[in-house]
Write a structure and sequence with these properties.
The complex is a heterodimer of chains A (358) and B (189). Chain A is an all-alpha fold and 358 residues long. Chain A contains 13 helices and 2 strands. In chain A, strands 1-2 form a two-stranded antiparallel ribbon. The chains are: A mainly alpha (358), B alpha+beta (189). The complex binds iron/sulfur cluster (2 copies).
C-alpha cells in the first residue's frame, strides 16, 4: 500500500520534473537556437553569469525572471475571473494527459511489478483526447473575456480550427485502434515490441494525418491562424502579460511534448528499440541479477522513449520554421475537404485489409 | 535576350499533394541546420571554425574590413606628435553635414616650427555621414577614414570627438594613405 503510493508519487514527480522542469524551459531555448541555426544566425547567446554564457542557456533564467517581474495586467471591461482562470484551463490539460502516457514498460524491481505509467487506464487513448480538448475552453474563454476585438477573433479561429482538426484526429486514431485492438496505451506500446508492428508501417497515412492534425491542434505554424502575429497582434492572448502569458506559453511547449509522446506511443514503437526485444535486453544484463538488469533495461527504455519524443519535437520545430502560415480558408479546406475524407478512406481501407488478411 | 518569368499559376498534381513539396522544404532547412550545427562546433572548442559558414560570431570574432571601407574620420598625427592638419578649413567647407568645427592656432614668429595647427578640432559623429568628403578635400593628407565603425554611445554628447581623441599616428593609417593617393591620383587633381 505505502510502497504503491511512493512509487506513484515518484512517477508523478518524475513526469512533472521532466515536463515543467526540463522540457518547457529548455524548449524555449531550443526553439530560438534551432531557428537560428536553420537561418544561418547564431541565436540567443548574450545572457551571462560571471562571463559564462553556456550557449545562451541562461536566457531561460532571464526569461523566467522577466516573466515574474512583469505587471499582471487586466484590461478595463474584461471579465476578471474568467480572464484569470483561462490560462489555468489551458495549462492543466496539457499536464494532465501525462497521467496516462506510459514512458516505459513493466519491470520487476525488488520483487515488485513496476509499471511506468501513472495511471494505466483501460480507455487511456480516449482519456487523452477528452482531456486535451478541454484546453480549447481555456483558449476560447481567454479571447472572449479580454474585451478585445483581436482576442475575440483569435479565439473564434481557435474554436473552429480545434473542432475541425479534432474530427480528423479522432477518425485517425480509429485506424490505430482497429490495428492494435486496444485503447490501453501500455498495451499499444507493448505490441510494438515487434519492429514490423510499429504504427508507422501499419498506418502510414494515419501517421501523416495525425501529425498534421496534432500540429493544428497545438496552433503552431503553419496552423497558427488563431495567434497570427501579423494579422491579430497575438490572437487570444493579446491582453495577457506576465505569468499568465507565461502559462499560455508553457502550455504550448508542454503540448508539443504531449504530441511527441502520443505520436511515439501510437506510431514509433513507444519505448522499444528496433529488433531488440525486452527479453534479449534483459538477458544481456543477466549478470546484474533480476533487479539490476531490470533497472538497467528500464533506464534504457525511458531514455529511448524520450529520445523519440525529442525527435518529434525537433520535427515539429523544423516544420514550424520551414513553412509559412496557411490562410484561414486554406486551413478549413485542408481540414474538412482533404483530411476528413482521407481519414474516412483510411478507416475503410484498414478495415478491408484486416478482413482480407484474417 | 529578353527574359520571361514563368508565371505558371497552375500547380501540377505532385505539387498539389503538399507532402512531397513540404518534405523537400524540410530537407533543405534541416540540412542547413545540421550543417551549421556541426560547423560551429570547432569554434566553441576554440579552434578555427569551418570557413564555409559565413556567419560571424560578431563581438568575439571580427572581420578585417577592406581598405576602401569608410569608418569614422580621424586626424593624422606626425611622428613628432604634432597634427598634420594646418587648419585650412577645407574639410569644414566640404563637409555636407557640417559636423566639423575648427579653431586655428598659429605660430607667432618662431623659426623652424609648425606654422599653423588646429587649436580645436571637433567632429560630431552623431551628425557625420561617413561620406569621406573631408578626406578628399584635405590638401595636407591630414584627415582619413579609419576602419573603426564601433562608435555607439549611451549619450549623444559623447559622440563629439575632440582633437585629442581624433589624433591617430600616421603609421597606423599607412594603408589608407596609400589607397587615397592611388585613388585621387587617377582623378588628376
Ligand atoms: S565623413 Fe563626410 S560628414 Fe563626416 S566629417 Fe567627413 S565630410 Fe563631414
Ligand atoms: S584636416 Fe585637412 S582640410 Fe581639414 S583643416 Fe586640416 S588640413 Fe585643412
Amino acid at each position: 500500500m505505502w510502497v504503491d503510493l511512493i512509487i506513484t508519487l515518484v512517477k508523478i514527480s518524475f513526469i512533472l520534473a521532466i515536463t515543467v522542469g526540463f522540457f518547457a524551459p529548455v524548449l524555449t531555448w531550443v526553439e530560438r537556437k534551432q531557428s537560428a541555426l536553420m537561418q544561418d544566425r547564431i541565436g540567443a547567446n548574450r545572457a551571462d553569469i560571471m562571463g559564462f554564457t553556456v550557449l545562451g542557456l541562461f536566457h531561460i533564467i532571464a526569461d523566467a525572471l522577466k516573466m515574474f517581474t512583469k505587471e499582471d495586467f487586466i484590461p478595463d471591461g474584461a471579465n476578471k475571473i474568467l480572464h484569470t482562470v483561462s490560462p489555468i484551463i489551458a495549462l492543466v490539460p496539457a499536464l494532465l494527459t501525462f497521467a496516462v502516457i506510459p514512458f516505459g514498460g513493466q519491470y520487476t524491481l525488488f520483487d515488485k511489478e513496476v509499471n511506468l505509467v501513472i495511471s494505466d487506464l483501460d480507455v487511456g487513448l480516449l482519456f487523452v483526447f477528452a482531456i486535451a480538448s478541454l484546453a480549447t475552453y481555456g483558449y476560447v474563454i481567454a479571447g472572449w473575456s479580454s474585451n478585445n476585438n483581436w482576442s475575440l477573433l483569435g479565439s473564434m479561429r481557435t474554436a473552429s480550427q480545434m473542432i475541425s482538426y479534432e474530427v480528423t484526429m479522432g477518425l485517425t486514431i480509429i485506424g490505430v485502434l482497429m490495428v492494435y485492438g486496444s485503447m490501453k496505451l501500455t498495451e499499444i506500446g507493448a505490441i510494438q515490441e515487434n519492429f514490423w508492428m510499429w504504427g508507422i508501417f501499419l498506418q502510414p497515412v494515419g501517421f501523416f494525418m495525425f501529425l498534421t492534425a496534432s500540429i493544428a491542434e497545438n496552433k503552431r505554424i503553419p496552423f497558427d491562424a488563431p495567434e497570427a502575429e501579423s494579422e491579430l497582434v497575438a490572437g487570444y492572448f493579446t491582453e495577457y502579460s506576465g505569468l499568465k502569458f507565461g502559462m499560455f506559453f508553457m502550455a504550448e511547449f508542454i503540448e508539443m511534448v504531449t504530441i511527441g509522446a502520443i505520436m511515439t506511443i501510437l506510431f514509433l514503437g513507444a519505448w522499444h528499440i528496433p529488433f531488440l526485444t525486452t527479453a534479449t535486453l534483459l538477458s544481456w544484463f543477466d549478470f546484474l541479477g533480476t533487479t539490476g538488469s531490470n533497472l538497467v533495461v528500464m533506464l534504457i527504455h525511458v531514455g529511448v522513449f524520450f529520445a523519440k519524443v525529442i525527435f518529434f519535437i525537433w520535427l515539429q520545430m523544423i516544420i514550424r520554421w520551414t513553412l509559412p502560415r496557411f490562410r484561414y480558408d486554406q486551413i478549413m479546406r485542408l481540414g474538412w475537404k482533404i483530411l476528413l475524407p482521407l481519414s474516412l478512406a483510411n478507416i475503410l481501407v484498414t478495415g478491408l485489409l484486416i478482413l482480407a488478411l484474417n | 535576350m529578353a527574359y520571361y518569368v514563368n508565371r505558371r499559376s497552375e500547380m501540377t498534381w505532385w505539387e498539389k499533394s503538399y507532402i512531397p513539396e513540404i518534405i523537400k522544404g524540410m530537407w533543405l532547412t534541416s540540412r542547413r541546420f545540421f550543417y551549421n550545427l556541426f560547423g560551429f562546433i570547432p569554434f566553441f572548442l576554440g579552434t578555427e571554425k569551418d570557413r564555409r559558414i559565413m556567419t560571424v560570431y560578431y563581438p568575439e570574432e571580427q572581420v578585417q574590413y577592406p581598405v576602401a571601407y569608410r569608418g569614422r574620420p580621424v586626424l593624422a598625427q606626425n611622428e613628432d606628435g604634432h597634427p598634420a592638419c594646418v587648419a585650412c578649413g577645407l574639410c569644414e567647407i566640404a563637409c555636407p553635414a557640417y559636423c566639423i568645427h575648427i579653431e586655428p592656432g598659429q605660430n607667432t614668429g618662431k623659426q623652424n616650427q609648425y606654422e599653423r595647427w588646429p587649436d580645436v578640432f571637433n567632429i560630431d559623429y552623431a551628425i557625420c555621414i561617413f561620406c569621406g568628403n573631408c578626406e578628399e578635400a584635405c590638401p595636407e593628407e591630414a584627415i582619413f577614414m579609419s576602419d573603426d565603425c564601433e562608435i555607439s554611445m549611451l549619450d549623444r554628447k559623447q559622440m563629439l570627438y575632440t582633437k585629442e581623441q581624433l589624433l591617430t599616428p600616421v603609421a597606423d593609417l599607412q594603408k589608407r594613405i596609400e589607397f587615397t593617393r592611388n585613388m585621387y591620383a587617377k582623378w588628376n587633381y
